[in-house]
Amino acid sequence: MEYLLLGHIAGSFGLDGTLKVISTSTFQDVRYQKGNKIYLGREKKELTVESYRTNGKFDFIKVLEIQDKETADKLKSESLFGIKDLSLLDKGFYYFSDLETCDVFDEDTNKIGKVIKVEEFPAQITLRVRNNKGKDFFVPFIKEFILDVDIESKKIVVKVIGGML
Hints:
By secondary structure, this protein is mostly beta strands. The protein has helices at residues 28-31, 69-73, 96-99; strands at 3-13, 18-23, 37-40, 45-54, 59-63, 79-83, 103-105, 111-120, 125-130, 136-140, 146-150, 155-158.
């Protein structure tokens, strides 16, 4: 089973053990539906969502297994995970974890680096690519630059413009 990082616990909210979470998932409303399972920490301890709400910066998640503030407070800085579910994605969309470690090639099939991280900047999603000399460069993840993505082969072909590399 493959897991995806959903977010990090920032602390508790209220006395009933509600978790205050900084989410990294773009599917919070789906992931945190009542009755869904989420997983805590490295051990992937199963938790059952009781309720969910958001205020923009934080998500507030109440789980059945945590009923008091003290228990929730002990979980500060822990990570929450969900099971990777490809059915949540529309065609042509990818999980960030699928893009990371992909080899990056230019239009002439020259390997120019490897994706080390997917960055979420306000303007767009951007690939951080490390070349074979250890230097990072950025490729906007938009159709003008991304010519082909083959997740199975872990290969991305990009259009290189002056100054990019």
